[in-house]
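Quick sanity check, GTP cyclohydrolase 1 type 2 homolog:
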Amino acid sequence: METTLADVVRVLDDLYPPSTAQSWDQVGLVAGDLSQPVRRIHFAVDPTLAVVEEARALGADLLVTHHPLLLRGIHSVATTGAKGATVTALVVNDLALYVAHTNADVASPGVNDALAQACGLTEVEPLAVVEGQALGRVGRLPAPTSLAEFTAALYAALPPSAGGVRVAGPPGARVERVAVMGGAGDDLFDHVRASGADVYVTADLRHHPVLEAREEARGGTPYVVDAGHWATESLWLEGAAERVRTALATGGDAALKVETHISTLRTDPWDFVVGAESPDGPGGTS
C-alpha cells in the first residue's frame, strides 16, 4: 500500500500535536499535496536552501524540519529572496515541507528529552509550564561531577559546531542537578532558579540576561552553559525519524513504509571562532 503525505501528516500531528505549539509559533504542513506519495522523508533542523537541495538530491518527497520557514509574515515569494527561493524550490521539486517546532519541544519524547539524554540525566521532569505546556526538562546526573567534566562530556555528546560550548561558572564547581532547554532559553532563568538546578544548558544566550543571572547567583548556582542552538536541537532528529517509521508501520489497517534520512548539513550559521579563552585564562592548557 502506497504511503501518502496525508498518512505521514496524520502520524506527525499525533506525535507532535500542533495545538501544543506556543501561540506565536507556526507549525504543521507548509507545502505539499496531501494525496502525493511519500517514499522518502528527510529530517533537518532548518529549512535552508542547502537543506532543500540535499533533500531533493536524495529523492525525498517530504522534508520535516524543526524550525519554521514562514514564522513571520512575508509579502513576496520571488526567488530574489531566500524565503521565496526556498518556497519555489519546494514546489518545483514536489517536495512537501512539515514543521514541528515548539510542539516538538514540549512533546514526550521530544527535543528536550533528547537533550536531557545527551546530558545523561535521570529522574527527568518538566522545567516549566507555559501556556499549559511543559517546557524544558530538569533532572539529575548519576553522580556529582565538576562543571568542567560535565561540559566536556556534553560537548562530546553533541554534534560538532564552530562555536563549541560556552560556560559561565568555575570549572571545578560541583554539579548534579541539571536543567535543559533546547534552542533559545534565556527567558526561563526564573524557572531554572526555582528548580534548584546547579547548571542550566540552553543556547542563544544574550549578554544581559546571563550577566543578570550570574549576578543574582552571587557566583554560585545555577551555572550557565550555552551549547549552541543547532547542536542542542539536532539531537531530536534521529528519534523523530524512528518514531515516524514505527507509527506508520504499526498504525491503521495496513503497514506503511517510508525511508528516512537525517540531514548531514550543519546549519549552525557560525563557521569559525578566533581567540577562545580556556578555563585557565589566556595561555591556559585546559
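Posting the structure with no commentary besides this: The first strand starts at residue 28 and ends at 31.
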